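ok trying this again, last paste got cut off
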Amino acid sequence: MIEMAITEQMKEIARVKAEEMGKLYNSITRGDGNVAGFLGEAMVAKYTGAAMTNTYDYDLLYLDYIRIDVKTKRTDVVPKPFYECSVADFNTKQNCDWYVFTRVTNTLSKGWILGFMPKKDFYTHSRFCRKGDIDLANNFVFKADCYNISIEKLYPLPNIFPS
């Protein structure tokens, strides 16, 4: 897991992009998480050197051929290895190669790149959760059908992207 400070420049770019995008169809948070999502993308782009592309299918392009979709959650705490990362069921058709998972503080002051998993492996290693199900580990009620995987099962980025 890689902790990263979020700069004012990153915040401003994220705010502009979130405003341009508006509320996405099927957004679980009704567009409220757009700034955090763009900050997750900015952190991964900064760490990997990937180009920000912002297509429907993927967010970043690394080495001109690896299509990365970044999935971000907001938090008030340092992520623990057993915390889970999610891909909403309505996003499974995105044409990407890897999912990279991030967390961003609610204050937008720092974040974490948690790890990655190739899309072809993700659905084998994740578990399906239905809208309305309760996660007995933390009493979270799922707001949409999704696939979840714990942080500890992700591949660490330092093995792929040496800094």
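PB: full thing came through this time. The chain has three helices and eleven strands.
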